[in-house]
Amino acid sequence: MHFCNNCESDFKLSNINIIKPKISADRTKFNLKFPERIKIKLKKITDSWNISTKPVYKTFTCDDCGENMHKAYHLWFKMNRILIEAHFCKKCGDKEFSY
Length: 99
Description:
Number of strands: 4
Order of helices and strands: HHEEEEH
Radius of gyration: 15 Å
Largest sheet: 2 strands, antiparallel
Number of helices: 3
């Protein structure tokens, strides 16, 4: 789940009940055909993830350079039939994923 800064404290105090998202993700964008260089970069990023840890509540972290941020590019892609969401800061997103 993603919350803005204004809703963060309400979420931590359990004042927000999550039942159904108000804005649905555009699922038509989940199966984009990325250029090979993008696929290689995404594979390298996901290979470095520690998937055995529990989720952590924090700001977004760029999956390329590691910068913390409150706004991020979100990139959805499938790898081995698993839907993956990666986050990128503006600098990395503009540099690597403009094609």
